[in-house]
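Lab notebook page, bench 4
Experiment: in silico fold of construct C2
Operator: M.H.
Input chain length: 266 residues
Purpose: comparison with the prior construct
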Amino acid sequence: MASGGGMAAWSFLSALALATMLAPAGAAAELAAQHRRDIARLAESRGVAAGEVAPLVEEIDRAASRGLPAGPLANKVKEGLAKGVPPARVQTVLRGLVGNMDSAVGLLGTVPDAALRARAIEVLAEALGRGVTAEDVKRLAQGAGAAPAESLAFGAKGWALLREAGIPSDDGVALMSEAMRHGFRSADLLALAREVSRRRDEFASGRASLDAVREAVRRGERPERVMPPERVERRERAPVPPVPERPERPPEPPAERPDRPERPPR
């Protein structure tokens, strides 16, 4: 006879399997079996009932049936469950991510390569979730010309970083568009945005110029050479006082040896 814990686990997994069978036809196949097992185990370990987690899986299945990447959605659910977030709140966050992915699909257009499409949707959805607007993405696309979908997605994420650092919209969007137009790779776009964000105080104070950075990009300089060198103020060190020389010790007088007594004659 199975133990109570074993029966509980069996019942939980069975209920989850039954719930996913009720999802729209063909949708259940979109969510990898490993993701399902991970979600079920996490939910069970946190004391979440199968009826509470099944709607999360169904939400992912419906999104996947529309061509959205299921992996990032499943990871968001697992992240929430692992942190002990109530399923209702996890579903709210999940629906927000699904909505951003739907918006990303409309902004990216047709992307024939499935892997590149999934990656671009995920990255652009993240940027939209961080406050980038559809209008920002359209401006990036217009400024970059015929940039590939992945470049547009990472350019939008780069602008999200600049936006969070307080860089004005006109400057940040223009910089990312320029870098995209000159063929910066995805990693280079993010590296440029992170470096500008890290040194935002220099740009705010006028010690560095975003126009100069854009001009360097326009000249086709390599990404690692685009940013101007940081200005480091050198402080004059206080002169070190000389170490006083030790006074020479006066020579000691030679020790006087007593005269030896004369020996008596033999």
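Observations: The radius of gyration is 35 Å. Residues 1-30, 232-236 have pLDDT under 50 and may be disordered.
Next step: discuss at group meeting.
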